[in-house]
Design a protein that fits this description.
Elements lengths: L1 E3 L2 H6 L1 H6 L9 H10 L3 E10 L5 E17 L2 E14 L4 H16 L5 E8 L3 H6 L13 E9 L4 H6 L3 H18 L3 E6 L5 H12 L3 H5 L7 H13 L2 E8 L2 E11 L2 E9 L8 H15 L5 E6 L3 H6 L2 E11 L3 H26 L1 H24 L1
Length: 383
């Protein structure tokens, strides 16, 4: 076993990434190192290389993060060993996954971290089952944070993609497109961004739209922070970036962007100016991006990313039920954090179910989004 704890050590291991390419863009070496360099909470990389007796290789790509605020153990911030999405490469058998989990738990026993996080793990898979077993009950989370992950198969054309969606979805896409073109067709423009020299213009347009959305008021979505900009720059230089911005009378109205990697398009962010919500400009812009993807014969899958949303359910055709699995260090402080976190996740899950399944809950959600949107506009006006 070899452990790389520094950026230089990970750079020196580049041949391993070439022999065993990461399946997910998050675990690709340059993407991973960009995150390590630019996210303030990251302390260092933690990449494990395992040589198996049968000649195969396995790799675990993770980063050690420091979390402050509510996630503290006494006076010390929580040290979280975060395995990247798709960060386990080369594992094939149950014994392989047992070795992966035992290697990660060793970091807890050796006091290198307080908690190990395996995020976006598909339920009912060997990795999920092994990670949630084989340890004392007080060292495993009892209320995993569950999530939905949607994907879609791309077609040879946009019309082919739309035609394979549900009847209501097909009708809505076409109806809103007609309404938008009828109302603004003479001043409607969609621009493509994919080159490094377009970075400043693209990020400026993304910011001008995101600053007006409810997501900004909640502090999610495109924030324009250092790490997001660095990743867009990397993606442009590597030929991964695919972005579309919709303009109405030369005013940015909606955007969608993501990265193409090994045959899959990974959505990163999409949003729209609420002033044009009645035309569903966000969906129109997404479809313009999909049109380009369908023309790329080597891109066949659209990965919407973790988290549920109405548009993902309408456009996706493969639903994955995933969860975050946490493993805790053998310490009183870590156990205390486990108990407090379990209570928070249970309360959050109950609240989400109430919002989704009751009319009052849905009204509260709408009110909260309206408040967040007003807050975003207020913040934008102060700049």
């Amino acid at each position: 076993m070899t452990l790389a704890r520094t950026i230089d050590a990970v750079e020196a291991s580049r041949p391993s990434f070439e022999r065993l390419p990461a399946e997910n863009v998050d675990a690709e070496i340059d993407f991973f190192l960009t995150v390590v360099r630019h996210r303030k909470e990251v302390l260092r990389p933690h990449v494990v290389f395992l040589d198996l007796a049968d000649g195969r290789e396995m790799r675990i790509v993770a980063r050690l993060e420091q979390q402050s605020g509510s996630t503290r153990l006494g006076t010390r911030p929580l040290r979280r060993l975060q395995v990247t999405f798709g960060g386990v490469s080369g594992a094939q058998t149950a014994a392989d996954y047992e070795l992966v989990v035992s290697t990660l738990r060793a970091a807890l026993v050796n006091d290198e971290a307080d908690v190990v996080a395996l995020s976006q793990i598909e339920q009912d898979t060997p990795l999920y089952d092994v990670a949630r077993s084989g340890a004392p009950w007080w060292r495993v989370d009892h209320v995993p944070a569950k999530s939905v992950h949607w994907r879609a198969e791309l077609a040879d054309s946009l019309e082919g993609f739309i035609s394979s969606r549900g009847k209501k979805t097909r009708a809505n896409i076409r109806r809103h497109a007609r309404q938008l073109i009828r109302a603004h067709g003479d001043v409607l423009e969609v621009r493509e961004f994919s080159e490094p020299q377009q970075l400043d213009e693209l990020t400026s347009e993304l910011e001008s739209i995101a600053a007006r959305t409810y997501q900004r008021g909640l502090g999610v979505g495109y924030t324009g922070d250092e790490s997001q900009r660095a990743l867009i720059d990397l993606a442009a230089r590597r030929g991964w970036l695919r972005a579309r911005v919709l303009y109405i009378a030369e005013t940015p109205a909606a955007f969608a962007y993501g990265y193409c990697y090994r045959g899959t398009f990974y959505s990163v962010a999409n949003s729209f100016d609420p002033a044009f919500a009645s035309y569903d400009v966000g969906l129109y812009t997404l479809m313009q991006l999909v049109d380009g993807l369908c023309r790329e014969r080597d891109v066949r899958v659209w990965d919407f990313g973790t988290g549920d949303a109405e548009y993902k359910e309408r456009l996706g055709d493969l639903r994955l039920n995933e969860a975050e699995v946490l493993m805790f260090a053998p310490s009183i402080r870590a156990v205390r954090h486990n108990a407090a976190r379990s209570a928070r996740v249970a309360a959050s899950s109950a609240a989400k179910a109430w919002v989704a399944n009751s009319e009052l809950g849905r009204r509260v959600k709408r009110t909260w989004r309206e408040y967040a949107q007003r807050r975003a506009r207020s913040l934008a006006a102060k700049r």
